[in-house]
Amino acid sequence: MTLSDHATITEPENTASLPNSDRPESNRFAWVDILRGLSAFGVVLFHCRVDLYAGWNEIRSHPEAYSAADRLGSYLSLPMAFMGSGVMLFFVLSGFCVHYPYAQARKKFLAGGYAARRLLRIYLPYFAAIILTILLETLAWRLSGPEPSSLSTIWRSLLMVQNYGPEAGQMAGNPSLWSLPVEIELYAAYPLFLWIMRRFGIKWSLAFVGVVSGLSCLAMNRGGTFPDGGFLPYWIIWCTGAAVAECAVAAKLRLPSLWLWVGTVSCLAASIATTLLADHLMLKQYVWTSFYLGLLVLGLRSSKIQEWVACKPGRWLVGLGAITYSLYLIHFPLLRVMGAAWVKYAGDKPSNIAVPVLGALLCLPLAYMFFRLVEKPSHEWARRLGEYMDSRRAISTTEEGA
Fold first, then answer.
1. Structure pTM?
2. How far is the C-alpha of 324 from the C-alpha of 141, rounded, in Å?
3. Which of 12, 128, 265, 304 is buried most deeply by CB count within 10 Å?
4. Domain membership flag for residue 2
5. How many structural domains does the chain have?
6. What are the average pLDDT values for consecutive 10-residue runs of the chain, which has 402 residues?
C-alpha cells in the first residue's frame, strides 16, 4: 500500500440509528459523531498534502528556495503526517454503532434486513463517487494531472474486487476506495462474531478474532497477498468497537477516570513513537487503535466531555460527523483537481501550508452537497428496504410458528 492507500475513511452507521432513549440526554453518543467528524477531516488534512503541498521534506532539504514563512509553516504540516491513522478510529466506531442495537441480545438479528441496510448505505454513494471520480480524473488530466484510471481498474472498483489479484490497485484519482470492500467484508463477518459472542461471551469472541487477525498479519509479513487486501488484519480493530458497545449497554465502562486519561495519553505517545520508529504497518495501526479506544471510552464516561459536547462548538462537530462518509468518498479527487489546476497556472505545488488547508476546507461544502443529493437518500432507501425485509421475516416466522 502507498502512503495514501492506507489513510482512508469508511462509513459506519451514525448515531441516528441508536435508540432515542440513549442519545440526547447525556450527549454520550453525540461524542461518537464528533469522533467521526474529527477523524474524517484529519484524513482530508493528511491527503491534502499529496497534490496541494510541496512537502516537509522538500522544504527542509532546500530551505534556501523557500521563504521564512514557508519554512515556519512547514512545521504545521508535521501533525498531518499522523492523521492518516484516522481510518482505524472509523473502524472502531463502525463496530460500535453496528453492534450497539444488538448488544446484550436486545435485538434479534435478521440477516435480510441487516444485509440490505449495510449494502445500500455503502454501495449507492460509493457508485456515485466512482462516477464523479471518473469525471474529476479526466478534468485533472486535462489540466496537469496523471492519466485517468484504466477501464479494468474502474470495473474492478465498481465490483469491489480491486484489492485482490495480480491487478490489485485503486483508481488513480481516488486511491482511498480500498477501504470500502474491507468494510463490506467486515459487515459480512459480523454475524459470525455476533454468534460467537452470544454463544461464548465477549472475551472468547475477541480472543478468536484476535488470533485470526494476528495470523493474517503474520502471513502478510511473510509475503502473503490475501490478508493484505482483505478484512482479516482489521477484524480485531472493528470488533473492539463492538466490544465497547457491549460493555456500554451492560454498564461495565467503569474504569477510574484519572487512569483512563493517563492511559489514553500514554497510548497517544506510544502511537506517535511507533509511527516514527516501526516498519510494520499493522503494528502501527494496532497501537493507534488503543489510543482511539481510549478516546471513545473517555467520551462515553466523562461528564466534562459530555458537557462540552452540548456546547455550540461540539454541536458543529456533530454536524461534521454527519457528512463523514461523503467527505471521505469525494475528497481525494477534489483535491487532485485543485492540485492540477494550481500546477497548471502557478507552475509548482504550493509551498504555503495555508493552501492545502484551504483546499481541505473547501471539500466540506462540496461533501455536504454530495450528502444531501446522494448519501441521505440512499440511507432512507436502505432504512425502508431493511424495515420491509425485517417485517417480511417476522411475518414468515409467525406463520411458521402457527
1. 0.87
2. 27
3. 12
4. no
5. 1
6. 37 42 52 90 94 90 89 91 92 94 86 87 94 96 90 94 87 92 94 94 94 88 58 95 91 77 93 90 92 91 75 79 93 96 91 94 96 93 83 61 50
